[in-house]
Amino acid sequence: MCSRRIDKVCCGLLIQGKIQLIITEQQEVHSKHLEQSQWNITAERLGDAKFKRDYGIKYAYIVGGMYKGIASQEIVVAMGRSGFIGYLGTGGLRFNEIESAIRYIQSELKDGQAYGMNLLCHLDQPEIEEQTVDLFLKYGIRYVEAAAYMQITPSLVRYRLTGLRRTNDGIIEIPHSILAKVSRPEVATAFMQPAPEQIVNKLLENGQLSKSEAELGSYIPMSTEICVEADSGGHTDQEVAYALMPVMHRLRDEFMAKYRYTHPIRVGAAGGIGTPEAAAAAFILGADFILTGSINQCTVEAGTSDAVEDILQMINVQNTAYAPAGDMFDLGAKVQVVREGLFFPSRANKLYELYKMYNALDEIDEKTGNKYRKNILGDRLQKYGKKQRPFT
Q1: Do the Cβ atoms of 267 and 185 come closer than 8 Å?
Q2: Into which CATH architecture does domain 44-314 fall?
Q3: Could you tell me where the DSSP H helices lie in 194-314?
Q4: Where do the domains of the chain lie?
Q5: Vertex 209, ends 208 and 212: CA angle to 5°?
Q6: CA 60 and chain centroid, separation
Q7: How far is CA 29 from the centre of its chain?
Q8: DSSP code of 390?
Q9: Strands 116-120 and 85-88
Q10: Distance (Å, whole) CA 214 – CA 207
Q11: How many CA atoms lie within 13 A of 344 on its CB side?
Q12: pLDDT above 70 for 382
């Protein structure tokens, strides 16, 4: 049993061989005085209540945006209709494909159900990010999931601050919400603070923000939803949730006290959540919401091929490996991929070793070059080698 008086109490009771949990706020709990039925926890009760109200959802459960529409328009619609929120995986899609998907989702979710769009960072091609934000503002997209960001960009600030206004009773209305997927404290720090002043001033100077929007931006964080991404499929820093979540909670408390925000910062969890037990563990760690990714590839709505779904359903937790990320290859970023029955991880890691060892293709010795030309690159080495001889 549990009997404590603190802000939040998580209590457990063994009933018919199963531990059932209850989370209460600012009240004394004596399990021996409760009926067993009162200890049953429903999915609707998990997570932060205000988060669910703000997003207009029934469950504190999010489907994250996976690359090239794997998190498809069908997933987003299915989630919205069921009381969840899903983010369309816009990364790698053409602008006309994103626009078509937005129109489809808006036509299917006509009753105010929640939905959102993924926004990938493009430091090397900021115009892609800029045009994507233009599209989101054009169609009134209220919820954006910011992924792969290591710093705050002008496009992100423009999206967040556009439309800010103060009501007659002094409340700041924020029409655009950003859910920031982070795995490092320094990145979380950037999102928990107001938009960088130099970026805001530049946008104001360029006429992309009004004076009022720029001023009000100093009273709100860049993101009120921080999604802490532990070791996960796709891009990963291979962090451990048990170590990462407490650090992020302390950061949240620090910045809430420093800036005295009127809108609370919520901290959610992602990475490795593929079972009900894993979801329960995330909430016990203090997650205000959870976000899933890889597990959703096995749904019928996912924009994934049947062959990939078959592979994913056959593997176990030990059947993955880390390989270089194609879009951040030169930075040494890693993605978690399937290892079982595939040569991709070992070959990709070897290619990255060659990239680090040599300055140009011509420097690779003949024996090594022939091996990888035959087994991996094939005709592509000859086709592209003349166009880009240096690696960098």
Answers
A1: no
A2: Alpha-Beta Barrel (3.20)
A3: 197-205, 211-216, 241-259, 276-284, 306-314
A4: 8-39, 44-314, 321-385
A5: 165
A6: 14
A7: 35
A8: B
A9: parallel
A10: 11
A11: 16
A12: no
